[in-house]
Amino acid sequence: MDEPAPTLSALEKQMMLDRDKLQSIIEGFIIAYHHGLTKDDTTMLPSYVSRLPTGAETGTYLALDLGGTNLRVAAVTLVGDGKADIEQKKYVIPAELKVGTAEKLFDWVALGVKDLLSCLGVQAENLNDKEMYMAINRGVVMQMGKGFELTGLEGQDIIELLQAAFKRKGIKIHISAIVNDSVGTFVANAYKDQNTIVSVILSTGTNASCICQTASITKHKFPKDSPEYMIVNTEWSIMGNDFLPRTKYDKILDLQSHKPGFQPFEKMVSGLYLGELVRLAMVDYVKNFGLFDGTLPSGLEIPYNFTTKHMSDIGSDKSPEYNVVLKIFKNDYNKSPNLDDRRIVHELVVRFSRRSAQLSAAAIASLVKLQCPDFPAVERDIRVAVDGSLFHRFHKYSSWMNKTFRDIQRIKEDKRTKIVPVEDGGCLGAAITAM
């Protein structure tokens, strides 16, 4: 990459998202949404979830999430009045089950479900009077193509394989829905607040869902008796190539990624990439500005070896000597940087994390505006539900995001349109969708 290294002040100018830049980003997203609704089969995906909960629903429903490392099984008891109790168990997937037969893996999953049921005082074999309903995270379907080398899987329907395992173990469970995290979060918040119109995931990755008129999804031909509205999974992570303002380091990260040009928004925002953006900037500053006396600390040459967790810890450091920076570099990179170097690292961390929060706020504003063209001058209560570790646990992230969202609305305090936090949204929403 021949682009010159920007000084800290030049980088600050590049990354400063003033009102005009934010408005341009909002307009860029809205154009991308319309393209997705009419032409693009990779974005604005219909979820076929067209009925939202009222908050009065009751009953116990199950949710299952199988990732590359863990299995999580949850029982969600809806108690009405928008409230729910969640009982869940998490299991580490044994390595030998990732390379065996699909039948063995799914039998193990079924036993995990049975274990959860027994903790609830439910004997799976005695579910003769009724069948329990379960939703699974879409990641179950996706993960089987990654991280696992199973025989007996090719050409098979994973839902049917899971259903067969439940039958072998004597569990009367019907898998009734496959739910995306952002759709699940939407449904979860709608259970307690019917003013929800947007849901967002800000974690290792990012995604969002919203409500659209079914008739506006013209790339699909829906039957005439289809519901008027539907939750749409935006897949906004893959938007932005033509309108997001990128720095030298965004471009380097993209070129060095497995899929250059793919997921530009996610590469600027999500927890998977933020640490790497700062690492790339530090490497460049070592070479061009003599950071760390011109010698890269041991370990910083390894891609993704400076993490978003490092960033959050550094961002929370209020000491004038930047003691957290010193501690991290001594412990993880065998380096004791001087005070000026620590300051530069701290400033790089703040710039990239703050920009992520500001971009997230602009993207949220664009989704609200898609559904309410008069935004921010709306005359109704609107809720944006947000879940994910970046939002909940990254130092100052939510406050930066909320401030930018208020600036876009030109208000000092939250008014009718509010961002609200959701915990375990995907899990709770999946269970409600199963209902």
UniProtKB/TrEMBL annotation:
<dbReference type="GO" id="GO:0006013">
    <property type="term" value="P:mannose metabolic process"/>
</dbReference>
<dbReference type="GO" id="GO:0019158">
    <property type="term" value="F:mannokinase activity"/>
</dbReference>
<keyword id="KW-0547">Nucleotide-binding</keyword>
<dbReference type="InterPro" id="IPR043129">
    <property type="entry name" value="ATPase_NBD"/>
</dbReference>
<dbReference type="InterPro" id="IPR022672">
    <property type="entry name" value="Hexokinase_N"/>
</dbReference>
<keyword id="KW-0324">Glycolysis</keyword>
<dbReference type="InterPro" id="IPR022673">
    <property type="entry name" value="Hexokinase_C"/>
</dbReference>
<protein>
    <recommendedName>
        <fullName>Phosphotransferase</fullName>
        <ecNumber>2.7.1.-</ecNumber>
    </recommendedName>
</protein>
<dbReference type="GO" id="GO:0001678">
    <property type="term" value="P:intracellular glucose homeostasis"/>
</dbReference>
<comment type="similarity">
    <text>Belongs to the hexokinase family.</text>
</comment>
<dbReference type="Pfam" id="PF00349">
    <property type="entry name" value="Hexokinase_1"/>
</dbReference>
<dbReference type="GO" id="GO:0006006">
    <property type="term" value="P:glucose metabolic process"/>
</dbReference>
<dbReference type="GO" id="GO:0005829">
    <property type="term" value="C:cytosol"/>
</dbReference>
<dbReference type="GO" id="GO:0008865">
    <property type="term" value="F:fructokinase activity"/>
</dbReference>
<feature type="domain" description="Hexokinase N-terminal">
    <location>
        <begin position="9"/>
        <end position="191"/>
    </location>
</feature>
<dbReference type="GO" id="GO:0004340">
    <property type="term" value="F:glucokinase activity"/>
</dbReference>
<keyword id="KW-0808">Transferase</keyword>
<keyword id="KW-0067">ATP-binding</keyword>
<keyword id="KW-0418">Kinase</keyword>
<dbReference type="GO" id="GO:0005739">
    <property type="term" value="C:mitochondrion"/>
</dbReference>
<dbReference type="InterPro" id="IPR001312">
    <property type="entry name" value="Hexokinase"/>
</dbReference>
<feature type="domain" description="Hexokinase C-terminal">
    <location>
        <begin position="198"/>
        <end position="435"/>
    </location>
</feature>
<dbReference type="GO" id="GO:0005536">
    <property type="term" value="F:D-glucose binding"/>
</dbReference>
<dbReference type="Pfam" id="PF03727">
    <property type="entry name" value="Hexokinase_2"/>
</dbReference>
<dbReference type="GO" id="GO:0006096">
    <property type="term" value="P:glycolytic process"/>
</dbReference>
<dbReference type="GO" id="GO:0005524">
    <property type="term" value="F:ATP binding"/>
</dbReference>
